[in-house]
Amino acid sequence: MPEAEFFQKLEAQHSQNLPFVAYRKPVLSGNSGEVKAFLQQDDQLHYSDDFTECGFVFAPFDTSEKAVLFPENASEKLIFEQVISEEAKFSDTSQKGEIPEEKKLTHVKLITKAVEALKAGAMEKVVLSRKEIVALDDPNPLKLFKKLLKIYSTAFVYCWFHPKVGCWLGATPETLLKIEGNRFKTMALAGTQKFSGTMDVEWGEKEQQEQQFVTDSILDDLEKAGVSSSGVESSAAYTTKAGNLLHLRTDISGKIPNSKFSPAAALAKEGQIPKEDSGKAVINRGSAERIISAVHPTPAVCGLPKEKAREFILSEENYDREFYTGFLGELNLQTNVQRSRTRRNVENLAYRAVKKETHLYVNLRCMKIEENKAVLFVGGGITKDSVPEDEWQETVNKAETMKKVLLK
Ligand SMILES: C=C(O[C@@H]1C=C(C(=O)O)C=C[C@H]1O)C(=O)O
């Protein structure tokens, strides 16, 4: 579909106050990327019960709250191919968008309190965040989405709207979980410094340690979800760029086990679902739920130990994160896999395999649009070695990702 038609349809959807999401996955090679959209046909609010549904999911940070779903069978799907040109430059925000001193004092105070708790051994890491409000001249979310598409080609870029929930936009560098068939991928992303023209940088002890916490904890959570460490590969930590920032990243991948931990097989045995449904597809869908619940929220956005950090966040942050540090993306979508047309494959019709794919991202570098203002959400990992002033500056740097498309 031509780009102009894609955006006309989205504008029409938005002006009718109907739910939609438009998004593009990171473009890591080549010079084009697919921009897709789900346009829900009415304004009903659907939820995902257990991540076995098919569609686009938008989940909050707080796991006690429900994840919103745009069901695939209740949505029109659109797609266009975006040609990636050299990353467009928008305003240099470093001198603009003054933040009131009081905001800084409040955040520094919160971090100081956390460092004391960390030094006393209450936790090993806690991720603390804040929100920041920027007035908008033009709050049209689709215009902002177009700008995000242009400047952040290696991020997952999205614009999500539901009249009963709100409007969110973001450009996140972090995958929560990708599942293709019986293979999964995830990442441990933490540690931040400003990009100053080179990827060849040194990382301090604090950053290396906080990133290692994330890697270890994800591996641990996977093991608890039935993915044994022998089936998991993880890379060495390396430097990756996200907008004007650098992070430390470890890639983790592996095979999802079936049978033993399969809720589907168990249900079939108990006669709760038909025997034929205890097959692989169902098994893997059950596994998706188990893995999502095991890893989210990772210590990249919550902390360690997870429950203590979560309690600290909910009681001390003093605002509602809503969907920031939640996750979003494609859930159990069918993709056609073309296999070679060998005689055996042709006879077995195996050249037209259908795979289910789930691709979820952590909702970071994001904002909520409310009438004539944007509410930005930014945070960072705190350990006992954190310097409160530096942690404040890190949130200022992170806020630039969204400010680049907001400020003139
Ligand atoms: C919490 C955020 O980012 C996360 C925290 C990071 C850190 O503490 O260094 C780095 C990347 C993200 O995992 C955010 O962008 O708001």
From TrEMBL:
Upper classification of the organism: Bacteria, Pseudomonadati, Bacteroidota, Flavobacteriia, Flavobacteriales
Highest taxon of the lineage: Bacteria
Pfam families (alphabetical): Chorismate_bind
Domain Chorismate-utilising enzyme C-terminal as annotated: residue spans: 107-267, 287-337, 354-398
Protein name: Isochorismate synthase
InterPro entries: ADC_synthase (IPR005801), Chorismate_C (IPR015890)
